[in-house]
Design a protein that fits this description.
single chain; 252 residues; mainly alpha; Arc Repressor Mutant, subunit A; 2 domains; two-stranded antiparallel ribbon; two-stranded antiparallel sheet; 4 strands; elongated
Length: 252
Amino acid sequence: MANSSFEPVLRRSLPEQVFDRIVARIVGGEFEPGAYLPSERRLAEILGVNRGAIREAIRKLEQAGLVDTRHGGGSQVLDYRASAGPELLPRLLFRDGRVDTHVARSVLEMRNALAPEIAARCAERADADMREEIARLAESMTADTPLSELQDRSLELWSAIVRGSGNVAFELSFNALRAAYEPIQRTLLAAMAAELTDERGHRALGRAIAGGRPDAARRAARAILSRSTDAFDTILSNIERKEPRGSARKTP
């Protein structure tokens, strides 16, 4: 699959575009931890935007844990690995119009590690109404349904499972993964086909959660996700092979 298949089509405000430009330079190592960003005036000149857009972008950078701004002291770059949260993942995943395969693999590892545990916690903690909803959503994952509709149902199912886990950290992590996934979800249909059409697996997951069986829920979730793991790995490997030698980027 071509690298461009992973590129999202997004509309962003001017401050968000400025934010993205600066984030790319921070995570790319151009602005190292401890360094200071150019002044607002200089950034406005470099990027060809007004200072209001620069100020709003810097506020976003501070909220994201990427810079520390002090009145009259400029904006100092922080080590994002130590200060930023998972909400930065969508920004890291796409840089310079290309997918960062190192980050993509990290996201997949996070998905495969968290989802089975989330399902297990949901089986332990969800109330009767939530268990019923999850069982209904799982039963709706039928192979004769169009893939795009199955993809939407899967997202709804996992949203319910995360809520049923009763774990706010899982919910926030899921939000970060969802933000990285939604802009490109339709380009992943072929890779996810085996996972999405696994009727038996989804039925087993729904019944395990409805029956309050965490070990069975964990196994079912792991089995479902494994059906797309090889396909994703193949896509990312193809992207890496098509990049010029020596140009493969890893998150610094």
